[in-house]
Amino acid sequence: MLSNSLVELDRRHLIHPVASWRGHEAAGVRVLTSGQGATVRDASGKELIDGFAGLWCVNAGYGQESVVEAAMKQMRELPYATGYFGLGSEPAIRLAARLADHAPGDLNHIYFTLGGSDAVDSTVRFVRYFWHARGLPQKDQFVTLEYGYHGSSTAGAGLTAIPAFHAGFGVPYDWQHKIPSPYPYRNPVGENPADIIAQSKAQLLAKVEELGGPERVAAFYAEPIQGSGGVIVPPKGWMKAMRDLCAELDILFVVDEVITAFGRTGPLFACSEDDIVPDMITTAKGLTSAYVPMGAVFMSEKVYQTIADGAGKAAVGHGYTYSAHPVSAAVGLAVLDLYEGGLLENGRRMGERLQAGLHSLKDHPLVGDVRGRGMLAAIELTTDKAKKTPLPAASVPSTRIFDRAWDAGLVIRAFAWGVIGYAPPLCCTEAEIDAIIERTRNVLDLTLEDPDVRVALR
Ligand SMILES: Cc1ncc(COP(=O)(O)O)c(C=O)c1O
Known about the structure:
By secondary structure, this protein is an alpha/beta fold. The chain has two domains: 31-63 and 342-457, Aspartate Aminotransferase, domain 1 (Alpha-Beta Complex); 81-324, Aspartate Aminotransferase, domain 2. 41% of the residues lie in helices and 15% in strands. It contains 15 helices and 15 strands. The chain has a seven-stranded mixed beta sheet with strand order 4-10-9-8-7-5-6, with helices on both faces. Strands 1-2-3-13 form a four-stranded mixed beta sheet. The model has no long low-confidence stretch (mean pLDDT 97). Bound molecules: pyridoxal-5'-phosphate. Pyridoxal-5'-phosphate binds at residues 115-117, 120, 149-151, 223, 227-228, 256, 258-259, 284. It comes from Endobacterium cereale. Keywords: Aminotransferase, Pyridoxal phosphate, Transferase. This is Aminotransferase class III-fold pyridoxal phosphate-dependent enzyme. Its cofactor is pyridoxal 5'-phosphate. GO terms for molecular function: pyridoxal phosphate binding; transaminase activity.
């Protein structure tokens, strides 16, 4: 009854992100009502393992009392303090200091946002301000990767390379450019890391030349693992090669860690595994484990000092009412305590188990590729392993596989071309990881029986 009336109210009033509005009206909402650990429950009482941690964000899992307590305490004491007018709050200052302490290299300065999109958007403004401060305002062209996702703000949507974010929205702008993704499984040069790295470097160099040389190019953006593009893992050494090339060309290197930071791939920052120090990092999601919204831009000494000197006594005109929100910061501190108190370690162990479990599915007739790092993974389905033929589009793999997994008690992300994404909470138990694998195998077996898939397999 409750659920039915909610479905109707939702249909009439709530606009859902990145949905077919008509499709959603027809399908109706699935209402989630509670969560504990790695498990969520829906309005019918059905329990599911959340193999996607909400939207790759509830890294600490549901029902963490210390986080709830931290938020309540802060709300009672001081629910809001602006960062404008030289004001501040203790949790925001402490969180910034603790994050700077953990961040790679000299990324010592933190600008807090409300999420990932406005973190990326902030970097676009900071990058431009940086080059103005350096007296090089003509360095105003931005380069990102195909299959990249950098949020849904007006500027970020054009850095994003997913067609649905462009069509009808008038982006990308003429200063936003793409080069091919390293995508090892589908790279025309094959899967050899050295070949992929050489190719990506050549592609960036060619793009820079096409844009008028390094004196026109402001920044290059990359995710350590391309999440929303289908969990695409560049070969080891790729990030470092691209970082070094950008340094050589005097192009800022911005690493978008909105998904990968805070234990998703193992450590607090995925780029520390790549052995690089970027000019800026964007984060969100795991920063607060999504208990409340918050994102953060990490800024290097070079970028910070250049902007500060460039502005001198003038204000750097960038700010949000809710930047450095004290409740979000208090939650961030409590979540960091959890990460450092054993959660990262558990995530590392469970990540190994998840990767091994997914690799055990490689013998399934539909599994073409298994990839990932830590608690971030994907399998790519194909009807012909040699030719790497994607599932037939007419079989609508995204909804069919998502629905099937749901029925099996598992939340996953199903991408349109037959990629299944995994990002379970770091608190998962061994039994939960095993259940994710077992339920996935059941979903694959059912999909193998679909008449259209059987025809395509022949
Ligand atoms: C790499 C990356 N950047 C930016 C964003 C945007 O973050 P948000 O949805 O919090 O605005 C996302 C979201 O998934 C992301 O994966």
